[in-house]
């Protein structure tokens, strides 16, 4: 999943951990379905945050959740 996107090996665990935290929260809140399928939009947000220098997995997850929810809110209003 992550290696094919060209991430450096040292960041795969960070992205994986941040994704797990964010996806777990979003599943419990009902924002994403409770499936084993990777949410591409959430993963893309996390990767972009990582590329912009965020290296703390908790902050990475929290920022990704905020952006994901903001995007969903914007789409619901439109």
Describe this structure in words.
The protein has three helices and no strands. The chain is mostly helical. It has one domain. α1 crosses α2. It is globular. 23% of the residues are buried.
Please tag this protein with its features.
mainly alpha, 78 residues, 69% helix
Map the helices and strands.
Elements: H1 9-29, H2 40-51, H3 57-77
> Based on CA inertia axes, which overall geometry fits?
globular
Number of helices, where a helix is a run of at least 4 consecutive DSSP H or I residues? 3
Biggest sheet descriptor: none
Average pLDDT, all residues: 86
Structural class: mainly alpha
Give the terminus-to-terminus CA distance: 31 Å
Enumerate the spans where pLDDT stays under 50 for 5 or more consecutive residues.
Answer: none
What level of helicity do the residues show? 55-70%
- DSSP E strands, number: 0
Outline of the structure:
By secondary structure, the protein is mainly alpha-helical.
């Amino acid at each position: 999943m992550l290696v094919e996107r060209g991430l450096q090996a040292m960041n795969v665990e960070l992205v994986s951990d941040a994704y797990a935290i964010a996806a777990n929260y979003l599943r419990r809140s009902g924002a994403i379905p409770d499936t084993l399928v990777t949410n591409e939009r959430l993963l893309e947000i996390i990767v972009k945050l990582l590329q912009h220098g965020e290296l703390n997995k908790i902050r990475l997850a929290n920022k990704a959740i905020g952006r994901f929810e903001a995007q969903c809110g914007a789409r619901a209003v439109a």
